[in-house]
Design a protein that fits this description.
The chain contains 11 helices and 13 strands. By secondary structure, it is of the alpha/beta class. It has one domain: Alpha-Beta Complex (Spore Coat Polysaccharide Biosynthesis Protein SpsA, Chain A).
Amino acid sequence: MIKKAILPVAGLGTRFLPASKSIPKEMVTVVDRPAIEYVVKEAVAAGIEQIILVTHTSKASIENYFDRNFELETRLEQKQKWDLLKEITEILPPHVSIISVRQPQPLGLGHAVLCAKAIIGDDDFAVLLPDVLVKDHEAINDLSLMIQRFDASKAAQIMVEAVPDHLVDQYGIVDVTRLPCEGESIVMQGIVEKPALGTAPSNLSVVGRYILPAKIMQLLEQTPQGAGNEIQLTDAIAALQQLENVEAYRMQGQTFDCGNKLGYLKAVLHYGVDHLKLGEAFKDLIKELEL
């Protein structure tokens, strides 16, 4: 069973400038909480018990957010603001721990994953890219289903979603023999980075969720610098495919790229209308703006 997840948060967030000049992009709020909390809650809902943040010196606020703030808690107790106290003390369940490791140089996603090698040890693990929010479809947690499939097949799982054909040149696209149904995994032949229009092997793009075997760490250690002079996780996955099957899992939920400003605004709209306390008022506000 997968119990560990790596969240690479060391990136500088240049797509979200100027906000990310002083605020980690992962800490920009979606409605009433930072984007990274949604990713952590997704992992916890899938059974993850240890979150490993691969971080940078400028990202201390992420670690602080998931830590306890006794001064604030005491103040809320004194003011008897029990609802707010409950919210900040239940951000992380007591059985879940968060550990931070530093990525000393920006050498790519593969290098970020490799930075967590000592903590992962011999355990299989998940990787969740915090730029991407995955919203469940009818309470179906796609990451949980990926883990179940990994446990059954022992094949690495790469989450994918269908994108319009005219946008395939913007994504990493998986090569498969047929299009799987939503919620299904299929053995993939490879990943083509940003294929030219008309040449893509499918319309299934890599989402940013991975279930990987522990042996991927050894492959990452042997992976030379690739595109952008960085150690690419996709290169190590390609090496893994030479040894065993790797499967593409077609998700059922919806994704939001919160590293992209328009994607972030889309996330705010979708999570806003579904918010338990603010949803109805937010819908009314949207209706007013439409006038």
